[in-house]
User: Fold these one by one.
Assistant:
Number 1:
Amino acid sequence: MKYRFQYIESVPSLPNAAMVRGSFVHRVLELLLARAAQDRTLDAVRKDFEIAEGEFRLRDDFRLLLLDATSEADFWESCRECVRAYYRIEQPATANIVELEKWVSTPLGEFELGGFIDRLERDDDGLVVSDYKTGAPKPLRFSTDYLRQLTYYALMCETQLNETPHSVRIYYLGGGKDEHTRDERVVTQAVTDATLADVRDTARRVFGEIEAGKSSGEFATNVTNLCNWCDFKQWCPAHGGDIGQALAAGTERVALRRREAGLPEKT
């Protein structure tokens, strides 16, 4: 159902601070790790933070947050704390980066999967697909969805690079300074024949469900507590909403926020 709202009905949504923080921290670390290993100093990351901040202050998603002075100061401090957490996880000069923001894809029968790998690195055992999460650390058993996402990228590497990463890894950068150990912040899962088969099967199943939904007009819903954070809950049939109102109402909601932010209306 969320796929229908986003990609079939094309209902626009508003950014939230967590999303923008994630994008911002990714950008800072992309700038830092694009430097030669010996140049990834504290002075360099301070400069990269300033560069990224200058970029984001001009971006629509940041401006649409409509942060007041206090909230904005809190936002930037939370971003700094994520970068500090990264330094508690690893020394950037030791990171053996293969590529950053690398596009990979693979065909799977009737469709193709594609996406950008945030960080492709190499250790003594081979390639590792990695990503940063700016939320608080989750144990391995609660990181399943994130790890599955990264395993899709491992599958794409297998096709595109003719080399299968041996592991996928999440670096959790959120949470309080002294609340989590390094082992809690770095969650790794091996890439095996079984995990690759699982993502292949899941992708084919979901593709089949989407195609069936397009034909029948019936899209499945999964009602959980997470619905409270969904941009489309008010129009979702599972919550008594009218999907037919979503596009007009969602477009007007975004247009109003853009006017509040002093941004031109999108055409």
Number 2:
Amino acid sequence: MNEIQHGSSDPIGAVDGHDVVSGKPIVPLGHHELRRADIDPKAAIRAERQVATMFSLSSLMIVSSIVAFIKVPNDTLVILPLFGPVNANHITVGSLLGLGIFLIGTGAIHWAKKLMPDVEVTEERHAFASSAEDKAAFGQAIRDGKAASGVGERKIIRRSLLGALALFPLPLVVFLRDLGPMPNKRLRETIWDKDIQILTDATYRPIRPEDIPIGGLVNALPANLLKIEEEDGNLNERGKASIILIRMAPADIVSQQGEGWDYQGILAYSKICTHVGCPISLYQQRTHHLLCPCHQSTFDLADSGNVVFGPAARRMPQLPITVNAQGYLVAASGFKEPIGPSFWERG
């Protein structure tokens, strides 16, 4: 291996103007080779058109992804090598949108490599606090860079890039449709209604008032839930319709959300916390408080389910109950307010 001679003018790691490791000639700092686009106006125009073509194709791909999202059936499968059957809508939309993003990136790179200045700039380290002169110089450098990039002069690049960037967010807005139909009134309603029988959550048995002792708590569901789940396979209604039954001495009931909504001291409340929707069944018999295990919101079930502690902002919704001719507990009506956490449409 050649040794580096003391006093040599070669930089560290170089011998005779060549890199020690690779053996390639070292280009002196400050040396700049002009590109073809720098010396040939036709080459510059050609590069400008290439960049604009990439940006324009990006716009076309983005618009095509929206069309494919709407027109290509979502239940059609295509066979791809190595991947097997894939959803035609997903692969078409993903490919077109990905190609559109790729073309924006490649166009920007091609623009920088062919048309923007490529002169090496060195800057000595300086204090973190910039002087007024440095700040002014930085502002000037930004303005110079803008001018050097040609964004003001090369109108075809500027317009095609702005067009591609303007169209890029549109698929994201259109694809929101794939989240499903708007809930409309479904967030406000449950399957509870007048005369629907109340069943235990575990055994699905009807409940008589005498089955619940004072201080007792029973997790319960509406009787029509089983048929809905068998027919539709939909478990969403279970989450909204789950309730708890609590029995206390009638004299301990301070207030209710409706006149006579209890039956002999038995109260029915939604099981879903009004903070973020956690299921609740931690009941303190002595205080009549219901505690959410997630964030410790606490509700006073003897006082209309009002919040007494924690981050919840709304009381627990109460379900009015009574008994039917056979002496079993039933709902006197549905919930009078939306259950669960607050949502954007709730007034």
